[in-house]
Structure formats: structure tokens, C-alpha cells
Structure prediction request, 968 residues.
Amino acid sequence: MSWTIPKLLPRSAPVILVILTLAAAVSFAAVSHLVARFTANQQARGRTLYAEGLTDAGAAHYNDAIAAFRAALTCDPTNSQYQLSLARALRDSNDPRLLDEAESYLLALWQRTPQDASINLALARVAAHRGSIEDATRYYHNAMYGVWNSDPDVNRSKARIELIQFLLKENAPAQAESELMALAPALPPDPAAHLRAAQLFAQAQDYSRALAEYREVLRLDPANLSALIGAGQAAYRSGDYATAQRYLQAAVNANPQDADSRQLLATADLIRRTNPFHSHIADAERNRRIIAAFAQAEERLTECAQQTGVDLKATTATPASPLSALQSRWTAAKPNLARLRSAAETDLPDALMDIVFQIEQQTASTCGQPQGLDLALLLISQKREAASQ
Amino acid sequence: MTNLQPPAPRFQIPRRLFSSLEGVFHEEVFFLILSVFIGIFSGLAVVCFRLAIDWMHLALLGPLPEAHGWRLFAVPALAGLVVAALVMQVFPSIRGSGVNQTKAALYIYNGIVPFRTAIGKFICSAIAIGSGQSLGPEDPSLQIGAGIASALGRWLEISREKLRLMAPVGAAAGLAAAFNAPISAVLFVIEEVIGRWSAGILGSVVLSAVSSVVIVRWFLGSEPLFRIPVTTFKRPSELLAYAVLGIVGGFASVAFAKSIGYLRPRLKALPRWTQYFQPAIAGLLVGLIAFMGAPQIMGAGYDSMDQAMHGQFAWKMLAILAVLKILATTLSFVSGAPGGMFAPTLFIGAMLGGAVGDIERIFFPHLPGSTGTYVLVGMGVLFAGFLRVPMTSVFMVLEVSGNYEIIVPVIVANTFSYLISRSLQPVPIFDLLTRQDGLILPSLEEDREETILRVEDAMLPVPAIILSGQDYVDANARRIQNSPDTIFLVRLHPGGWNTISRDQLQRLFQEGKGEHTLGSILPPQSVPSLYPDLPLDSALRYVNDYPLVPVVNRANFRQLEGVISRDSVFKQYGSRPAR
Prediction:
């Protein structure tokens, strides 16, 4: 069988070039048509597989989703959406070996459209999986300032909240707080958004801003129980026990079964009733509270010594034992209680309460968190300490 | 190859048409323009070839091979029967990769690659690769390109000299399109197909390769074959790790080449009827390997290479895949199924590189190179060791990765691999296959091993007496009276050399021409001079015509370095051992 090309055409160079050009054009058109048809078929197949992948990913069947997305990509290798979905599935599969592949898909997409917020967010999540604060922060910021296809404001807030949660998880409260401060003014008048921000401020231990956000929630939705509880807790943590008492009381009234709030309310109430440094109490009341606190401290010290096996009455007590040293100080100061009524002893209340606070702090660290009046005294001491600092 | 044709008439430009373009379209220029068209047609053919493979793969195995267990071994076996029937009955000259056939076309068959071979290669390779035989599309693309170029050249009735060059020009176009890497394709064609450095064809090869790549990118996009991960090379001490990879790759290359070299002639020697079943049995075995848990080894395997590059396989899996791919490719290739070894070589190198890199990092956790870096270097290592194309191996990695930072690791690892392979497997795989087919073709490796004789090797010292063309004949005759020599070199003025024998000079003297200057009597045509660094072959054209040929300094052509004579040249050739 001989396969030869017919020699029908003249052998003139320009004519040959014209013929070759025409042949190339015709071949080009034919291949274009072929490629277009093949591509269309492949894309249709890819869409089916992609839909299967989305279903699997939605059901958290990530291995099946990955297989489906991979198959979809073999049908349509340049489809950005498929690549992005595959990268997300690879990332969410919790297989650390797949993170590299996810990242490489995302980086390839990012190089094409660095301003795409979805890709930046996905990259940020990969970095967050790796625990890389620097990379995650950069990509989250890119996502916040990037281009969103829909609901840009909501998505930006969500991205920032996600970043804040990541920073808090990675124990970076200062960075989280700065992100929160940027977030708060941009929040829409939505109780849920402000509630989330308040909770994040509380997690970042910025209780005053948390309280402000809870108040904003209550302004928008006065019956919001979570905000009442949160406001009470934020006020309590920041040492504003009067405010805490007010919000916690409202929370307990709204939900009497809330044992935690009830407990906090009781402590806040106790603090208010036992704090000798309260500004609106008479001297006699102040002295009574000091005497009660002094007695309570001795009880706590004795209990803690028994718990830890330290004999406070033994003369051979180890001088290095902090509990024994505090017991000595307490015993030496006890006679001074009688001089509390003297107007000349202006520093005495502070001196006595200083011993009480030291006993409460030391026993808390040795014997664990106290309860009742001891807890109230401990919290008062911490508030005083924070105020002096 | 029986489709030999008588010498084609030389291409001539008709003068009656387009006379104004006459000067433009001389054959050299036309050949360059033709190279672009070869690239375009080859690119279009390769686009169709890739679509055909993809379509076959989807139709036969589906988009998810894991999901269709029984197909994994049934499809390659049945497709093997079809391919074998086509090869035996319709396209008998399409067995194997196609690289050697293209080379044979250049050196033996006057550049003729039958168009039928190109068509057969297209159809059968698409079926074989699409059905999962462990073969790649690059070498068939190379032969398809060569077939198109050759057909075009024959249709245009270009000169035999140019027709011979059409095959490598088309081969470069086909390979560049398949690999999406024009530089590597050009280098491979020079290293393996042409087998010689030839400046005359370089322009055409480059033009065709570039134009075919443009066509492929137009239709299939400019996405690289792999998503290249971040590759790093920070400390020179890392080179030790890559050297180890080169050593392992060198031994793997030898094992791969020896297994093919051992099995192929033995299967070919079996009765002819068995060749109808060999591709089917190979397909069945490859399918069984896939069915038992390694579907990655089927076909070209680019997806798996991509996954290996991104650390998706543990080192044990990588090592297993490398070994299984050697086995599967050996089975597929020696069975006679048409398909190439480029992609399998890359696959084996990638898996081996990843495995070696991961193992090294277990023992030396501080090594900073990523798995992707080792995978890329591993690809080059196998290219250098198995295909024995050191230049291509380096540029292939650079072109595929687009990262010049890893050039040093690639060169180091490839050097080790190449040297080990060369010492343990003296005959490169393509030469071995050619010799098994009863042909001996030139290769660059052969050239590298050959000692080139130069003029300086045969050069005799500067003669004691050099006559001057400005002196009188009688003065020159007196100077040679006591010399034992019979031939003398004459320095002419203002430049040039000539020779005269003792008898000639004495005859001139006896004829009464003693008062004439020697230069005025000697014939005006001077003796050509040579330079010491020229190949000795270049002296052969003069030593028969001139008893002495002067060898002069390149910087000062009046400075004589020595002379050569016919005897001194032949003496050098005589002392050289026969190849």
C-alpha cells in the first residue's frame, strides 16, 4: 500500500507558500473545531463530576470529594473553580501531606488573580492550618481588601473575625485585639455581629471593649440574654462589680436556671458587701470588714496549711515556708486590729489588708482557687493590684 | 523500511512566475520558511494526538481509574490485541518509540519517513497509551512530526540533502509540541536524532520547535506539565544529598536499560504469531499491577508526577512506584506496543527523586530541599542516566520548572547518574535498540569517546632550510647543496608559500635561470597553509597535491609552526587503533 500526496500543484515557491498557508489555515480551523467539541464534552463531564465533588465535600466526605474534583480537573484542567474546590477539599481533609498540594493549587490560582478574595482566604486557611501567623495574617488581610463576588462587607467582616479567632487560638491576643479594634467600627447595626465582636474582645481579655460591644447589642436588642450574661461577665472580669451585679441580676431574672451567672452574681454581691475599700462606707463599717477579712484570712491559711501538711504552730517550722511566714506576719499584726479605731493610724487599714491579700494570693497559688469570701477577697486584691499598676 | 525512493530532483524556483521574488526564495531561505510550516502542521497533529489519547483514556478507563477495577486489566489487554493486529497487518514499521526510526531516516533512508508510519503511530500509540500501557506520547509525537516533515519535503521535491534534514526538523517540532518545551526538544534532537552538532540545521530545528509550541499553547494553553512547587537550594553542602540521588538514579537507569536490552531481542526472537499477543499480555500484566494498588503506573503518569511533586506519597510508595514503573514500562516497551519512553523515564526519576529525598530527610532532618525539588532533580537524573542526553536532561528540568536556582543540584546529580550509567552500560539505550535492529547509527556519545586527530599531531618540525622567493635561483641552489632533503619550502613575498624539489631547482640553475629570483619563476599559485588546531582530516585534501604543506600560526600567518607531508599524516592515521 503506497501513501503518496498527489503532485497536482505547480512547483513555484510563492505558490507553494500560498498553498501551505491555506492548508495551515484549513487545518487550523479543523483542529479548532475538534478542540472546541472535545473541550465542550469534557467541560460537561467536568461539571457533573464537580457537582458530585461539591456534594461529597458538603457531607464532609473529603476523600470522595478530592477524587471527584481531581477527575473534574482531568476534564477541564484550567478551571479555576475546580482547582479552588480541590484545594479546599485537600485542605479540609486534615491530612497534613495534602496541605502542600492544596497550597500549590492555590498559589497557582493566586498568581493568576492575586486580588481574588476567595483564593486569598483559602490560602489564609492553609497557612492557619500550618500555624503560620505571618502568612495567615497576610492572606487574611489580602482577603479583606480583595475583590469579593458578593456581599463584600459581610465577607470582609467574616474574614477578619476568622483571623481574630486564629490569632486568639495561636495565643496572639495583642494582634487579635488590634484586628478587633479595626473590626468594631465597621460592624453593621446587627446584634449578632456585635455579640460576636464582644465575645472576641472578651477572649482577647479586653473586657472594657467587650462590655461596650455587649452594651451595643443590648441597645439594639435589649432582651438579648447572651449579651446580658456577657456584659455581666465582662464587667465582673474588669472589676466593675456594680455593673456586673446589675447585668448578672438581669440575666438571672431572665433565666433563673443559669447557675454560672448566679454564682458570679453571688461573688459580685459578696465583693460589694465585704470590700473595705468601698468608697461609700463609714469608718466603722470599713473596720468591721477589715476585721472580718483578717479573721477569714487566718482561717484560709490554717485550712491550706492542713491541706498541704504544713504545721503553722511548730516552732521548727521551716522558715522558707511561705505559709509559715504569712502566719508569723498575721500573728504579729493581729494586736494592731485594736488600733483600727484610732484616727491617727491612717496606714493601718492598708497594712492589715495587705497581709490579708498576701495570704489569699499565696493560698490560692498553693491550694487552688478559693470560694465564697476568700474568693471575694482574692478578687478585691487583684483589682487593687491592677489599679496600683 | 522499504519505501526507498530514487534521488529526488533538486528544488528549483521557476523563473517565469513571481520573478521579483526570485532572489528571495533561494533554497536555504525556503527551507527556513518551510520549517515554520513543519512546526505548524506538527503542532496541529500533536494537538490531535493528545486529544486522541485523552479521549481514548476517558472512553476506555474513565476519568477515575480507581472506580473501575476490572477495566484496569481488561482494557489494556484487549487494546493490546487491537494494537498488535494493527502493527502486524497494517503498520509494520511503528513498533517502539520512533526516535531510532527517525534517526535511521536521516542517516539511511534519505530522510524518508513514510506518511503511513506517522498515521499508524498516531492511531496505535493513542490506543496503547490511552488504554493504560506504560508508555508516553513524546517519542511518537517526535516520529509523527518527522513523518509530516518528510511527506512535505517529498511532495515539494526538495533536494535529497534537504530532504534528509526534514526528519529531524519535524522531529523537533513534534517533540517540542508534546513536551511543551522547545529548548529541550531542540537539544534532544541534536543529541539523539542528529547525533552531531550541526550549525547548518540548527536554525530550522529551532524555528519548527518554536512554531509547534506556539500552536500547542494556542489550543491547549500554556499551562506547564506540572504545577511546580517552591524549589530551594540554599547551602552547597546539600549537593551531597543530590549526589546520592544521582548515584541511585544512575543504578536505576542501568537496571532499566539492561532489562529492556535483555528482554527485547528475546521477545522479538519468539515465533511471529506470538507477536499478536505480546502487547496484550504486557497490557494484562500492567493492568494487574494497577489493579493490585498502583494505578499510577498506567499511561504517561503526569498526574502522579504532579502529586509526587507536592509530597502526596510517602517515600515507600514513591520507591514502590519507581520499581513498578520500570517493570511496567519494560513490559510495555519490549512487547512492541508503540509508545515512548520519555514520560516513563520522567515518572521513574520523579518517584525515585522523591523517595531518596524523603529518606535523606529522615536521617538528616535539617536538609532544606522540598520533596518537589528532589522530584524535579530526579527527573533530570533518569534522563541523563537512561536516555543518556546530558545536555537535554539539564535544560529539561530548567524548562519544566522555570527555576534556575536548582541548576547546580541538577548538574551535580545528572553528572553522577550519567557517569555511572556510562560505565555500567557502555552502549546508550537508543544505540542498543538500533543495534538490536541491525543498524549502526552515529551518536554524540560516540563522538565524545572518539579522539580527534589534529594537524598538530602529524606536524613535522620547521625544516632547517627555508628558501626565499626573493633570493636568486643560484643562491638558493647553493644553500641546499649540503642538505639531505629533497623537497624545500619556499617563502614567497609579500605572503604565501610554495615548494620546490632539489631536481627542479638544479634544473632551473642548469637552464641558466640562476640570475632570476626564485619567486618570479615558480608558478603563481601558492601552497595552502593549515593551522595546528584543524582536524587532520582537513589536511587530506592537500597532501596528495603538495609534498609539503606549511602549518602557520593563527595570530601570525608568516610564522611557520611546522610542516606536514602525506607520510606524516598517514603515519598518524596508521598509529590510531581502528574503531
Notes: Chain B touches chain A through 50 residues (CB under 8 Å). Residues 27-61 of chain B form the longest helix (35 residues). DSSP finds 24 helices and five strands in chain B. Strands of chain B lie at 466-468, 487-491, 497-501, 549-552, 560-564.
